[in-house]
Design a protein that fits this description.
about 375 residues, mainly alpha, 15 helices
């Protein structure tokens, strides 16, 4: 009996082993299936990520292409605007330079060619007045020529060598303009420093009167200047023009506006170093106002270089008249000389403007200054 029981137990144990082995094999297959599923999920996730990346790349490429298109369109618009503005500026530049170019070209023409081209301007139109309620018109037109048929220099030889009157008038212009420019700047620097440094109601009232006087046209002040010059006994002399020009208010206004922008810290540091008002004015204010001083000098020179009314009223002696008065009294027999004289007359202002163009812009725009 015991032997049979042992056999049965051994048989049961073997069967349990077989069953366990079967279950283990089933678990292994399940694990294999699970690993395969996970690998498939990984492949699926990689595909989805790739699709997402592709869509994002497409969107970014679309956005970048759209930005490039917008940038190109803006670039084309700016280029078109630049071309248009350059064309408009060229038209204005040509229109402004045309009188100067015509004057220079016509100064080398002969007297016959000038009279044939521009003589219609100086003809007498008294025979074209109204007769019986009707008007008569002239069919001739002015012929503007930039290139003369025959280049001659007879006008320049006449102006510079044969007739000294034109050179005397040129030096009259220099003798009237340079003293006005120098002394006006000197007086304006002192007045502007006082207006900028010292505060008070009286100063504000005086500065306001300067502004009012500056806004008045000089034709309004001609009669008072004439009466004052007659009272001082300087009428019919150069001083009757120089003295009113020295005390002109424009330079004071421009330099005052600039000196007010000098930093107060610079002035206070100079005071701590022991500098008095004269040292502050001469060593700090004047060197910092080089740009405005140059711009004032250019504007004053050009203004008084072209004056006509003041010499005609203040100077009865034609020997003291500047060259600008001669140019305002051109007659038909001196058209060629007028072109040559006008060319010589343009040289000093053009040279001064070309030399001080940067100073002129800096002085008016107050560049490089800081308000204290």
């Amino acid at each position: 009996m015991e032997k049979t029981d042992e056999k049965q137990n051994s048989i049961l144990r073997e069967s349990e082993k077989d069953i366990n082995e079967q279950f283990l094999s089933d678990d292994d297959t399940n694990e294999e299936f699970l690993t395969v599923d996970e690998e498939n999920e990984e492949f699926l996730s990689d595909d989805e990520d790739q699709e997402i990346e592709d869509t994002l790349l497409e969107k970014t490429s679309d956005k970048s292409s759209g930005k490039q298109k917008k940038f190109r369109s803006r670039k084309k618009r700016t280029l078109g605007r630049k071309i248009l503005l350059t064309f408009i500026a060229a038209i204005f530049a040509i229109s402004f330079l045309l009188p100067t170019v015509l004057t220079l070209a016509n100064s080398f023409m002969s007297e016959q060619e000038i009279s044939s081209n521009y003589g219609i301007i100086f003809n007498d139109y008294s025979d074209s007045s109204e007769e019986g309620g009707s008007r008569t018109y002239r069919s001739e037109v002015v012929n503007l020529k930039l290139i003369p048929d025959k280049v001659v220099a007879s006008q320049y030889t006449t102006v510079l060598l044969k007739s000294p009157d034109y050179l005397m008038k040129f030096w009259n212009s220099v003798l009237l303009t340079l003293p006005i420019m120098v002394f006006q700047i000197a007086i304006a620097l002192g007045a502007a420093y006082c207006f900028a440094r010292f505060r008070g109601r009286i100063r504000e009232i005086i500065f306001f009167l300067y502004l009012v006087l500056m806004l008045m046209p000089y034709q309004v002040t001609l009669v008072p200047n004439y009466l004052v010059a007659n009272w001082f006994g300087i009428l019919d002399t150069r001083w009757s023009i120089i003295f009113p020009g020295i005390f002109a208010p424009f330079s004071v206004y421009l330099l005052t506006k600039y000196m007010r922008r000098i930093p107060q810290s610079v002035i206070e540091s100079a005071k701590l170093d022991g500098a008095n008002e004269w040292n502050i004015f001469w060593r700090i204010a004047v060197p910092m106002c080089k740009g405005p001083i140059a711009s004032v000098a250019i504007l004053v020179f050009i203004d008084y270089w072209n004056m006509v009314e003041q010499p005609l009223i203040m100077l009865s002696n034609s020997a003291y008249h500047p060259l600008s008065v001669f140019l305002s009294q051109i007659n038909q027999g001196e058209i060629g000389l007028a072109f040559a004289v006008a060319t010589i007359y343009m040289v000093p202002p053009i040279l001064i403007f070309l030399y001080g163009e940067e100073y002129l812009v800096d002085g008016i725009a107050y560049s490089g200054s800081v308000k204290g």
